[in-house]
Amino acid sequence: MYLVEVVAAILGTIKSRQMKKDLDNFLPVQEQFVLRQIRANENTQYGRDHQFGRIHSLADFRRLHPVTTYSHYAEYVERAENGDVNAILGKSKLVMMACSSGTTGKSKHIPISSEVQNTMLSMLAGLFALQPQIKSAYRPLYKEMQILCRPRWRYSPTGIPIGPLSGYFTNKSILLAQWSTPFEAHVVDTEAEAMYVSLLFGIRDRNLCRIEGGFASGLYNMLMFIETNWRDLVADVRSGRLKEGLDLTEEQRRVITKYLVADPQRADELENEFKKGFDGILSRIFPNLEAVSALSSGTSMALYKKKCLPYLGNVDLVSLMYGSSEAFMGINVRSAREEPAYALIPSMALVEFLPVDATGTPLEGATPLLATEVKVGELYEPVVTNWSGFYRYRLGDVVKVVDFFHQAPCVDFQFRAGQMLNVHMEKLSEEAFIAALQTAAGRWSGTTLLDFTSAESVLDPSPRPGAPYYLVFLELEKGEVTAEQLKTIDEVLCEQHFVYKSFRVKDSIAPMKVMTVKPGTFKAFRQFQFDTTTAFLGQFKQPRVLRNPKQVEFFMKHVNSQ
Ligand code: AMP
Questions:
Q1: Most CB contacts within 10 A, which of 37, 247, 318, 374?
Q2: Residue ranges per domain, the chain?
Q3: Can you tell me the mean pLDDT for 116-120?
Q4: Where in this chain does the record put each GH3 middle domain (predicted)?
Q5: 3 state DSSP class of 362
Q6: Contacts for 551 with CB less than 8 Å, ≥ 6 apart
């Protein structure tokens, strides 16, 4: 572990020098990146179909190649999965298909080439060089905790693994050396058991220095799990055994137990702290904890982030990077106490910026801009060209340009385009809805809003006749709210959103149907998504607008009786 960390630090230092030069030379580096992809894939079927032979500059590329969405690649992806890798990739190998979350639609298969290792190395170097929290949390002999759930790989007819991109890295023992769960004990593929085992290895280590939570929603689940299961965890730290009743095979149990040691002293220490309550628990049980990281930008993670903070004590929550299965893009160059600013790294992907409005809809007649043409404060949809066969691809995210770092634009992720309610062309963004919801919930006493989702009335299984309306499902932490209180969401939205109000006044939109759901519904929904779609748990992001009747039915079944 020490060697891995030291070698990584040396490589990181070398690579990060290059990266800083690149940041001062942004557009030329972007052009080099694109031309490298074009030359490498010139003789693929895709390259021939799209005249790569005629592309010799960034300008040629932007003139000749169209802006694309996933459907543009579906046929090439299928050919590659069936053995014709040369349909997409020329010089590099196809190592896997990354399955993107599938929470907003049908899941996508994104080709991942062997270049992923270089990109990953650049990302790590970038974090090491540019991220203030990571720099200060460098402790080569201290461990880091992450919930490690083994992906359930699927395979294409020719044996190409299909799964979450993170699964590619958690298959490599060398990259897992610093994790508190021993590599060999990383054998569990069900969420509750993986959570238990990873937490057991994590909390027994007093010297843990970092916690990686994935998305803020994942970190929140982890904290809730500790709060509910701490007695069992402490008992197992004390005895060095694994409690009965976990859904594990004999073999999994044997492998995991091999690495457990009885530690009554640590168990006493943990028990004392848990008994004092959960405010600031992480910094009390891990006195050397330097940082907790979780991707927490944007409206959809805001609720979870707020819920996590009280557990952290004096440790900061940092959102390290902005990226997706399609491309790693930016590194947060600000400290954890500030709003994130993800500086785009020009050697990792070409990012163009499609100007969009507050709902994520492209402005009329707009075409993608280069990084040098964007303005601070404006909203854009990133259009990315990556290292494994996607070109000028609309990512579906909405980001705001918040700053510049050297010559690189810094963005902050806002929301997924299309996560909007639109029953009468009012195009209400997720951001506008959540603002109204939070204002209304802030006025209710004795209860806290835990989670929410919504849908358009077209999906209501027992629709009200007349004008369309929004269906809203809320999970509350304690207590109940009255029907009168629930009505305030509609009133606040009218106060805050002019277009919505104008349609409500005209009765073109009927009042919202707001329902509270039983405790644990949103957690159960994660499992439902996992069981019924190709989504992977670690990638799960609660959709704020449900588009699928089965999902709406799920929430309807969990509504509290009035
Ligand atoms: P996936 O490809 O399924 O792993 O998900 C990638 C998506 O996660 C991106 O397209 C964004 O919508 C979201 N995302 C990426 N970075 C962040 C971040 N720092 N904070 C919140 N959401 C993020």
A1: 37
A2: 135-319, 338-416, 420-557
A3: 84
A4: 342-416
A5: strand
A6: 455, 525, 528, 529, 543
Cα of 295 from ligand 1 centre, angstroms:
7
Quick check: CB of 539 below 6 Å from ligand 1?
yes
Token pair 């062997």 in the structure block, residue: 114
Q: Which two tokens stand for residue 468?
A: 């369309």
Spatial CA neighbour of 414 closest among 465, 449, 380? 380
How many other CB atoms sit within 10 Å of the CB of residue 487? 15
Q: Report CA(126)–ligand 1 centroid distance (Å).
A: 18
CB 397 less than 6 A from any atom of ligand 1:
yes
Q: For 383-430, what is each residue's pLDDT tens digit? A: 999 999 999 999 999 999 999 999 999 999 998 886 678 787 677 877
Ligand 1 center from residue 324 Cα (angstroms) = 5
Residues 6+ apart with CB under 8 A from 358: 379, 429, 431, 432
Give the other-Cβ count within 10 Å of 51's Cβ.
Answer: 12
Look at residue 283 and tell me whether its pLDDT is greater than 50. yes
Lowest-confidence pick of 38-52, 65-79, 135-149, 399-413: 135-149
Looking at 386-528, which runs of residues are DSSP E strands? 393-394, 397-405, 408-416, 449-456, 470-476, 513-516
Alpha carbon of 316 to those of 82, 285, 337, 393: distances in Å?
46, 15, 7, 34
Q: Which tokens go with 207?
A: 């010297």
Nearest ligand 1 atom to alpha carbon 166:
4
Of the CA atoms within 13 Å of residue 70, those in its CB half-sphere come to 15
540 alpha carbon to ligand 1 midpoint, in Å?
10
What pLDDT does 105 receive?
40
Element containing residue 351 per DSSP (H, E) = strand 350-355
Ligand 1 binding pocket includes 451 (Cβ within 6 Å): no
**Residue 320 CB less than 6 A away from ligand 1:** no
Give the closest residue (by CA) to ligand 1 atom 10: 324
The response to whether residue 386 sits with its C-beta less than 6 Å from ligand 1 reads no
Ligand 1 centroid distance, CA of 323 (Å) = 6
Closest ligand 1 atom to Cα of 326: 2
Q: Is 301 in the pocket of ligand 1 (CB under 6 A)?
A: yes
Q: How far is CA 375 from CA 372, 379, 409, in A?
A: 9, 9, 9
* 145, containing H or E segment: strand 144-146
Decide which of 462 and 1 is more confident: 462
Pocket test for ligand 1, best of 169, 381, 413, 526 (most atoms within 8 A of CB): 413
Q: How far is CA 499 from the centre of its chain?
A: 31
Question: What gap in Å lies between CA 367 and CA 511, rounded to an integer?
Answer: 37
Report CA(415)–ligand 1 centroid distance (Å).
Answer: 9
Q: Which two tokens stand for residue 321?
A: 């990077």
pLDDT surpasses 90 at 10: no
pLDDT at res. 174: 73
